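Open question from group meeting: does this chain pack into something compact, or does most of it stay loose? Before anyone orders reagents, we agreed to write out a predicted structure and look at it together. Recording both the input and the output here so the notebook holds the full record.
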Amino acid sequence: MKKLIGIVAAFLMLASTAFAETTIKVDGSTTVLPIMQKVVEAYMKAHPDVKISVSGGGSGNGIKALIDGATDIAMASRAMEQKEIDLAKSKGENPVQTVVAIDAIVPVVNPANKLSEITLAQLKDLYTGKITSWKDLGGEGPVVVISRDTSSGTYETWEGLVMKKERVFPGALMQASNGAVVQAVSKNKNAIGYIGLGYLDASTKGLKVDGVAASAETAKSKKYAVSRDLYIYTNGAPAGAVKGLVDFLLGPDGQKLVKEVGFVPLN
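Structure tokens returned:
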């Protein structure tokens, strides 16, 4: 009888192992979020034994979660800073960067705004508070400046490429996501904001920058001035179930989904 019980117990243990689910946690950039959501949906459909949770709290939050060992994959719309890499290594983590797509940050205004293009210098003047009226740019009414919050990789990229390391002025209305910027600009005829290319739709109007419109071609060639790579970070080179997801994302099916959600595939 004891032998039979032992056999049954061993069988149950093997069965539970065979049917155990693999879980992966992904956190970070709201810019990368729609890419990852689409990829994860397709990947889990093909791999029902893998369960993946995805949340977007900003690049800074995703990177912090990776440093703290609280996520398997950090999505980021800017590169990790050296101080973040050093902190991660001090905690036994080894952040490895993988480029997954290309993006353009597009300044957007309300469709009622007559403006169709703008210069980098004018954008800087708007976001430092030097320009406060649309009259200075051939329009009318006060300017309402919408910005991403400081935990956002999009904010940091904007600060580097447009602001040239100057800070966005305190009068700007800070938003926690690309979607929130779209909503704020679409509801205010005097507003200007900036969003990732994949969030551009008819509810806002994208502006040319220095005469160049944001597109897959101009972002990839870097002809468009506010272009950038989009990343994921893992602790060490992707391995196991995480490698399976990353390989799918970088493969033809994953990169097709990158294009479907409005961003620029690598190939």
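Observations to bring back to the group:
Confidence is low (pLDDT under 50) at residues 6-12, 14-19.
The chain has two domains: 22-101+229-260, 103-227.
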